[in-house]
Amino acid sequence: MVLTKDNQSTVATFILLGFSEYPDLQLPLFVIFLTTYVVTVLGNLGMILIITINPKLHTPMYFFLSHLSFVDFCYSTTVTPKLLENLVVEDRTVSFTGCITQFFLACVFAIAETFMLAVMAYDRFVAVSNPLLYTVVMSPKLCASLVAGPYTWGIVASLTLTCFLLTLSFCGSKTINNFVCEHSVIVSVSCSDPHISQLLCFAVAVFNEVSSLMIILTSYIFIVVTVIKMPSAGGSQKAFSTCASHLTAITIFHGTVLFLYCVPHSKNSWLIVKIGSVFYTVMIPMLNPLIYSFRNKDVKETVRKLMGMIMMV
Fold this sequence. Notes:
By secondary structure, this protein is mainly alpha-helical.
């Protein structure tokens, strides 16, 4: 049967190799990733629940944190279940529709997280530089707008990239040397010229990384200037402590992203990309709620109360 350009993509299927080249590690990796996913789900949904039920946490900072937790939960849920499935089944095929859908959703939440961290940096700047008017400046209307921005841009950018992917042709079964349907691996198995799609993806990625980092760096430059001008050492220490968790989260997130951008193209680079992608898509969504909970007294107090209530039931 001869496939036309119109029906190539509809009958195409992809094979996600994942970590199949390491058969002895399939079961250990399944246990590790399943444990990580359970912790991710409990941690992020638990953080949202804690912020909801504790009136002390009804502040702009925790409003943004609850959305970061929601994004992390959705991002992990988009990627990890398919990864777990491919570790225990021999048939690692995924339909064209399923692969494109996973790419779209993962792209939405990855972009949303990128700019949610930037929004949280601006929030920390306002809190440190103008603490007395913090709740006035960060009004509910402004907070809602700042949260809507990352979601809106994530959807617009992802739809654009997805539409350009849909213009490509895919012939029959194609092997993807990864565990997730990323843009680079999808276009690598296309039958048509993916140059425009690759160029667009590169432009979007550079814009996202540069613009979000500029917001973060600008915010923290002003925070440092404000802290230096503080007369008391106690005030400076308190200001830095409020930023410590966020600084840790953005260092891990953007450090991993920049590392993946810098991986050289070679025969051994696919393994490095896979490991980096695991950290980016599986580990970071688990780490964020842990980072914010360990350093926060109100969160830990609420967790203890919840655990006490559960033990009494």
